[in-house]
Amino acid sequence: MLTKRIIPCLDVKDGRVVKGKSFQSLRDSGDPVELARRYYRGGADELVFLDITASKEHRETMATLVERIAEVVFIPLTVGGGLRTVEDMRRLLLSGADKISVNTSAVRHPDLISQAADRFGSQCVVVAIDAKRIPGSNPLRWQVHAYGGSVAVDIDAVQWAAQAAALGAGEILLTSMDADGHRTGYDIELTRAISTQVSIPVIASGGAGSPQDLYRALEEGEADAVLAASIFHYNETDILATKQYLAAKGIAIRN
Question: In angstroms, what CA-CA distances link 97 with 42, 43, 91?
């Protein structure tokens, strides 16, 4: 049985980790290198670093900061933000990333997914999907957003996840914009809709407020991994305690 993964997330703006609600009202949460070191020592299975304003500001991800983080963690490191070409991805892999995450550029140019998979292998390619519920939709539907969540795109999130998987993505990093930062739980319906649609791992993101929320995303949402930020940044729980809770609930978790 494949074990489930606990993945802290570092959303970085201007060289600092930030956190907000539904991608708004960002507040400072600390130094990315120090947080990365803390999470590595605390038992994180992987780490995600997202330069959240790179696409919106039409610039490259901060490679120097990626190098500094890669020097202090020895677990898989996924990096995203502002990646527009295969060469951009190569530069970050050489800087110490193990996987690259693409969102806006993949939405604009889906063939970038297959190009990256051909060049580096699907295991290196994570397609991030920022999705928001479409009010009044029945059955429920979610719309893809790009440029750090600031631009709505006329693409159905579930259909886009299936297309990304078919193009060679190795994982889906799925963030509910509605739940993000509210700490009231993941969007279980969204997570399950995509997890049951694709055969590649799905990382649930957006809304974690307690270890119970992580359990529901893994069990009811059928996610393969859970990404969280606020509950770890502000010491409301730690990774070890979360793993112990999930193991006691019958979730296959890494020691």
Answer: 20, 19, 9
- Tell me the backbone φ, ψ of residue 207, rounded to 5 degrees: 120, 0
Structure token pair of residue 183: 């700490």
Count other Cβ atoms within 10 Å, centred on residue 212. 13
Q: How far apart are CA 22 and CA 40, in angstroms?
A: 27
Strand partners, 125: 100
User: Which sequence positions are flagged as catalytic?
Assistant: 11, 130
Helix H or strand E encompassing 192 = helix 188-195
Which secondary-structure segment (H or E) carries 119?
Answer: helix 111-120
Long-range contacts of the stretch 158-165 (C-beta < 8 A, 24+): 158/193, 158/194, 158/197, 160/107, 160/129, 161/127, 161/129, 161/194, 161/197, 161/198, 161/202, 162/197, 162/198, 163/110, 164/106, 164/110, 164/113, 164/127, 164/129, 165/198, 165/199, 165/200
Is the pLDDT higher at 24 or at 35? 35
- Cβ–Cβ under 8 Å, residues 206 and 176: yes
* Residue 136 confidence (pLDDT): 93
Tokens of 111: 């063939």
pLDDT tens, position by position, 70-127: 999 999 999 998 899 999 999 999 999 999 999 999 999 999 999 999 999 999 999 9
The C-alpha atoms of residue 187 and residue 194 are separated, in whole angstroms, by: 11
Instruction: Tell me the pTM.
Output: 0.92
pLDDT score at 22: 65
Q: How many whole angstroms separate alpha carbon 102 and alpha carbon 167?
A: 13
Three-state DSSP class for 130? strand
